[in-house]
Amino acid sequence: MTIDNTEGARAQIGVTGLAVMGSNIARNFARHGHTVALHNRSIAKTDALIAEHGSEGDFVRTETIEEFVAALQKPRRVLIMVKAGDPTDAVIEELASAMEPGDIIIDGGNALYTDTIRREAALRDRGLHFVGAGISGGEEGALNGPSIMPGGPKESYEALGPLLESIAAQVDGTPCCTHIGPDGSGHFVKMVHNGIEYADMQLIGEAYNLFRDALGYDADQVADVFTDWNAGDLESYLVEITAEVLRQKDAKTGKALVDVIVDAAEQKGTGRWTVKSALDLGVPVTGIAEAVFARALSGSREQRKAAVGLASGALADKPADAAQFTEDIRQALYASKVVAYAQGFDQIAAGSAEYDWGLHPADLATIWRGGCIIRARFLNRIKEAYDENPKLPSLILAPYFRDAIETAIDSWRRVVSTATLLGIPVPAFASSLSYYDALRAERLPAALTQGQRDFFGAHTYERVDAEGKFHTLWSGDRSEVQA
């Protein structure tokens, strides 16, 4: 139903930016009994939404920002669903100029968290609340229940939280939405979520590649494997849709659609942001980084075309026992996924410490169980691990995940070694295994690195048997002095 905006401030929430995501989330609010004010720079999109879906709930049609703001109950709550960057800043400024102290602006796009920190501080000075809310689940999630990660002032969540929780996905009666923390924390957590998503997708892609190139399976055969896996510990949204994608036939050629799609993966930037942030924080997210680089390499089509035919070597035969190798791939996929999540949670912990956000890993595992792209059965295990030990040094050290990796380790090594001998690229599998080996190693070659740094730059080093920093007089008599 369309409400005439001359009736006054009727809407509990406003949505501006009515592309697919914005339209779907506006419909989600309306379906849950909230009156929704609609605004879009192009009025045609507002009218199209009302014409097609006006029967789903109460919508208030507005044409100008002034009309839009006037249609909202106080404290006014406006969700922005526009392109990140300058367009977001422009809409924020337009809204802020029309709003009053205590009103709430929510950015539901994939904004860079440092931009959110800046925007929250600027609007706070103007008496407005700014909430950076990560929203995961894509178009379907936005309409039927996403995972929502709102950051910003705690007091703003008192007015905003009930609305967001009502439209979020629900798992075991718990909404997949909670107040994350101050200023940019919500968008930071969503960024890392997307980084984990990159790693998860790359690992699944590498598993598919092994079935295709090491075992000679066609797309339907691989789809059957993923369907089977989705009934077990690997149950997840991404594993589920992988089987569906692999079974899809191309209407034009009759071939598997995956075989006629160009093998160049695109990206919108959140994966790169994750890796850049991890570098700044000094946190190794090797699986995520390899996934980002794998997409970049896939897009280097001219280089790849020129390199076709380079020597591969021939050091191994293809696996003779397909059933055993299939199980090895399953175990390697599970273990590598654990590493990806462990690295992501390490980054979240480091970001929380750096910005004094006070984030709680168990809360994040809870709200990622439904609605979002990385939703998976084992997020319940992650929640349990952090509930039991909120200061867990690494997810890998939680008893359940430690046992799972110890069970998988031989399969994991066989997969990486077989792929290497066959010349099949598995950067995420291999880097995840190397990370695990480095983490568990009693000694790393970093001691040599420190010796080299001290030799050419007098950067000093520490000793295992004494406190303090030391320096060797490399260009002198090579005696050691305390720095």
UniProtKB/TrEMBL annotation:
Species whose genome carries this gene: Rhodococcus opacus (strain B4)
Q: Where is the signal peptide?
A: none
Reaction(s) catalysed by this chain's protein: 6-phospho-D-gluconate + NADP(+) = D-ribulose 5-phosphate + CO2 + NADPH
UniProt keyword NADP present: yes
Q: In which pathway does it act?
A: Carbohydrate degradation; pentose phosphate pathway; D-ribulose 5-phosphate from D-glucose 6-phosphate (oxidative stage): step 3/3
Q: What is this protein called?
A: 6-phosphogluconate dehydrogenase, decarboxylating
Write down the superkingdom of origin. Bacteria
What keywords are assigned to this protein?
Gluconate utilization, NADP, Oxidoreductase, Pentose shunt
Membrane-spanning regions, if any? none
